[in-house]
Amino acid sequence: MICEDRNIERPCQVFDTYCIRKYFAENSKCKESQGPVPDPMYRAQSTSFLPRVNLTMTSHDALYSGLNGRIEEFYINKETDKLVLAIEFRNLTFYSKDTYFRFHRRGREPIVNVDYLYVNYKSVVSTIVIPNRKDLQLQKSETVSYVNEVPIFSIGKNAFDHPDSTVQLTKIQIVTDISTDAQEMELTESAFYASTFIQYSICDFGLKVL
Asked: Residue 96's CB: how many other CB atoms inside 10 A?
């Protein structure tokens, strides 16, 4: 049997959304929200960096589906004075018909093509850590996400419509290691998932996540 750290405090059960809302409202300046997250959820622009393949993707008028997640962990660490919340998102999708693919090249300007980008994650778990448990401020939080399964990754053919060897090599590299590319996307996407869920379904901090 694994004994839990004595510094871990669980003020609410993970399934007790009412209690979690109250905890946030009583320990921050946010206002309780009842949800759900709009589906689809609109975002004017989203930028993802894939350093493994030297590619930047800037998506306009992005649509997200599946942001009404399920809380799977919630606790307070009294020693570090931090709140930890983990949310699982199932069948999470991202779509933009106008994504700008910037293929970076050494010593030369990037090649830019435009086409659609579609990603479907069967399961993503986002963990958000918020400091100062008695005065929670969402803007000071840190978020990381873990992709549990290889996602469906679809890119329009015009994205790779260029004879330059860098573009063609990038196409091959993406196809051969989609898992890594998906995880790299989460470096910039994670905060949007978690913050959107919290503000629509738990407590509204009045923040606009760009």
From this structure: 22
Task: State the burial class of residue 74 (Cβ atoms within 10 Å of its Cβ: 0-12, 13-18, 19+).
Answer: buried
Which structure tokens are listed for 73? Answer: 């962990």
| Contact call for residues 25 and 4 (beta carbons, < 8 A) | no
Domains of the chain: 8-204 (3.15.10.30)
The C-alpha angle with vertex 16 and arms to 13 and 135, in degrees rounded to 5, equals 80
Can you list the positions of beta strands (E) in the chain? 8-9, 31-32, 41-50, 55-65, 70-77, 82-105, 108-131, 142-147, 152-155, 203-204
Tens-of-pLDDT digits for all 210 residues of the chain? 445 688 999 999 999 999 999 999 999 999 999 989 999 999 999 999 999 999 999 999 999 999 999 999 999 999 999 999 999 999 999 999 999 999 999 999 999 999 999 999 999 999 999 999 899 999 999 999 999 888 999 999 999 999 999 999 999 999 899 889 988 999 999 999 999 999 999 999 998 876
Q: Quickly tell me which residue has 């997250």 as its tokens.
A: 37
pTM confidence score: 0.90
Rounded Cα gap, residues 181 and 87, in angstroms: 21
